[in-house]
Amino acid sequence: MARLTRPLECQLLRDAPAIDAIAADWDRLWRAQPIRHVFQGHAWHRAILDAHGAERAPCVVAAYDETGLVGLLPLCVEGGELRFLGAPYSDYNDLLADPARSRDVLRAMVDALDAAGLQRARLANVRSDACLRRAANDVDGRVGRRLRWRFAAACPTTLLEPDAAAAILPILRKKSLRRQENRLLHLGSLAFRHVEDPDEARTLLPEFFAQHTARRSMAGEGVLFDRPAPRRFYESLLSRLGLQTIRFGVLELNRAPVAFHFGFEYDRRFVFYKPAFTVELWDYSPGDVLLKKLFEYARDRELVEFDFTRGDEAFKARFANASRSNYTLHLLPPGAAGALAALRLRSVESLHRREAIRAAVERHQARATGLALAVRRHGAIRLGRRAGVAAWRRFVHAREEVLVFRADRDRTARVPAASLEIRRGRLRDLARTAPAYPELFHARRLQLANDRLGCGDQLFLALSEGRLLLVAWLGLRREIAPAVFGDDPRLPLEREGTVVYDYWIPAAASRLHAHPAVLGAIVEASAVPDVWTFCGAKDTRAARAIAAAGFAESHRMGRIRWLGRTRRTWVETVSGTERSLILSPGTARKLL
Question: Does the pLDDT value for residue 61 go beyond 90?
């Protein structure tokens, strides 16, 4: 006679104490899975609750039979919809259950969630070989009709079985990796290690956060560690997972950390998770050198896999020899609401397939929003008049004039800086400040800053109580060539001078507040006696601020354009009330 089994019973665990009460059973069930990921253990999810506290509403579904806990689905409620509790940190999410019973466990869990009024879910980062994917594909009937899958991301990986050394050898022989490592070695001694002391790891975390923020800003990608919750999450992981599972690697140049990797090693698998490097060495590709050291570590440990997890970044394709896929599982509500949700989901999928159309729609919406705000602020008639004048000056007739100022380092008095902090800056200062000033330090600006610093130019920063007011760019030049003029006119200098040629000012800051003090500091620190700067002839406030720093007007440069073509250029020397015309090299060539 067949033995009758008791139906599965499900409980919804809605707070941290209830989750802690099943910690041992949770990890027992996790370790029994055919494929275990660090993202699914109790410690990982508990660190998330440590970091996010009351802002996250857990809803962990636990399924029991007569033997105890047989299924676990770690969820939370966000905006009335269910998400994985591990989002957005977990690269892989899954249902913990015996694969043979996963279909029944999932059906019982959906029934329990329906009874609690939670009928809608969007469960992201479910890998193609996950228990949840198999269970959802096997379940049928009313529950099966409510489930929809959608592709989310590729998951490249490097499989190292059966011989890790043989699999990694072609990677370590790549000329690009060896070339980048040799370039760094020319700068000094290079060493790589994994941090084994928890106190040292906590000491290094702030630098890791700062390097990651700067690197993401330079790449024009989303910044993670500008908020306190993600920082708390990584700090909690150190305590809950420990440095046996966490592999916190640091690449040191002359004993200073220039690159980090925060990853994991579990079940002889290495998880490539969060890399970072100092942006001052951007052109030296320290990330590639870091990756080489990590592959050497995997070889020495004889690991079976080097998992790049989700994301199809170009650098991963250079090293991966296999790929999986991540999917998003949508649980739709029953009845007509579910049918409408399915229709909306299909529409979104269709739109995503037409990426160009989606991008065009977003650009159109941004322009429409900007135009609506401008009309509301200035009025349609005034805005139209401005647009007409701007179009006339741009396409028909344009007169541009620039005032050039000079100061003598040995004769100019220093302007008091009041409460300002004025100092020389580096690329890392701009990149780490970027999240607070996205309109000022976007990716193109940061790449331009990297190019300028690489050419030997310098920057000065003005701050007040930690708030950025002004960035001034300067370099040694033998001529003055304002960007507004392009190639002509130019003002040749009798001897090399320091030229302050560009200013970056946050939208909320006043340039005039810091301008004289910054120019005064530049004059005092100049390596040559002559210091030059310039501004538009119509910018009278800027001209007064430059004069207040001890600069005197020395030249006027101008250009007239008709229908987009330059018709006349001039450079005049200003001496009291007298002016003399100087032909720029381009104008002289035209006259000859």
Answer: yes
